[in-house]
Amino acid sequence: MLVPVSLLAESMLHTLDPFVFEITTGVGPRWYGASYLSGFLVGWVILRWLANSGRIPLNSRQVGDLLTNAVIGVIVGGRLGHCVFYERELLVQFTSGFPYWGLLAIHKGGMASHGGVIGVAVAVALSARREKIPFLAVGDAVVFVVPWGLMFGRLANWINGELWGRALPLEMQANPPWWSVKYPHELEQLVQIPPQLESLRAIAPATERVPDATFIQWMVATAYDHANAAHEQVVQTITPLLTAYYPSQFFQALAEGPALILLMSLAWLRPRRAGTMGAIFFVSYGLLRFATEQFREPDQGIDMVGTLTLPMALSIAMIAVGAGIFALSRSGILLGGLLRRRG
């Protein structure tokens, strides 16, 4: 069940449940998976409409085949990208339990948007070759719907409470703005129980008395348990202790979704060479992603490229790819003709 975010002390307290519903404890459909499904469904609807209205050089059957390849590309590329870019140890991690290989443990999370984009590009290339349609023309159709999937993925990151933003400046912590967010899991990083939390011992039922070593874990679990009568007391007590962060997931959802969709839609209104849409997507996504990464806290142990985090460096690479596609489009290489808006 999706639990509403608490609004306290002018800052959001993240208490969202990652499950749409739980069949049993820890088992059930998650919002993260639902976000991917939503992106694929929206993409299929839009591409079919573009094909049926003659706006792209594909028919309904080709759209279905292309989307199937794109789904595989997103999942394989996103997972491989995460393992190669961020957690290379998963490539050599093997266990005795299912799914036995760290690379395949996708149910534990770990997808990279840059890797997903690469996977989709490979899927487009294979589909274009099989259907004997110019690669740039097929790419123009696909990149028009990619922002929807990126946006849904960022919203899922928010629900999961992952990919935190940077902490707000110290001068803003005393009275954080309403759009900032606090995470109860931050308390798990505390080595000792702060004196302010000692009062919570009286809240725990006698049957749930816990030793010092697990008190923080009990308290965080209670904060998520809205059936517990002590919930509001727990929330009111822990909120002032938490750090306020930028809601970077929302920043990136807005940039990679509505902002990109608007730019692509404006470009779609006039005749253009094949490849123009792809170039606009790569350059715009790279620029917007680089800008929003300024508000995101780098993952622990993430590789650095000089003073840039790896996502920033990959975003710059995407800008370069976009510039290359634009050059190919202008030169007529793999051009595939002039696509015009019809209807």
In short:
With 343 residues, the protein is mainly alpha-helical.
| Strand tally | 7
Secondary-structure-based class equals mainly alpha
- Strand content bin: under 5%
Mean pLDDT: 81
Helix content range: 40-55%
Strand order of the largest sheet: 1-2-3
Number of helices: 11
Task: Compute the CA-based radius of gyration.
Answer: 23 Å
Largest sheet entry? 3 strands, mixed
What would you call the shape? globular
Question: Would you write up a description of this structure?
Answer:
The protein has 343 residues and is mainly alpha-helical. It has a domain at 31-164 and 246-339. 51% of the residues lie in helices and 5% in strands. The protein is built from 11 helices and 7 strands. The chain is globular, with a radius of gyration of 23 Å.
Distinctive features:
single chain; 343 residues; mainly alpha; three-stranded mixed β-sheet; 7 strands; 5% strand
Write the layout of secondary structure elements.
Layout: E1 6-8, E2 11-13, H1 31-52, H2 60-85, H3 113-131, H4 135-143, H5 146-160, H6 170-173, E3 181-182, H7 212-224, H8 231-238, H9 248-268, E4 272-273, H10 276-292, E5 304-305, E6 308-309, H11 310-331, E7 338-339
Parallel strand pairs: 2-3
Antiparallel strand pairs: 1-2, 4-7, 5-6
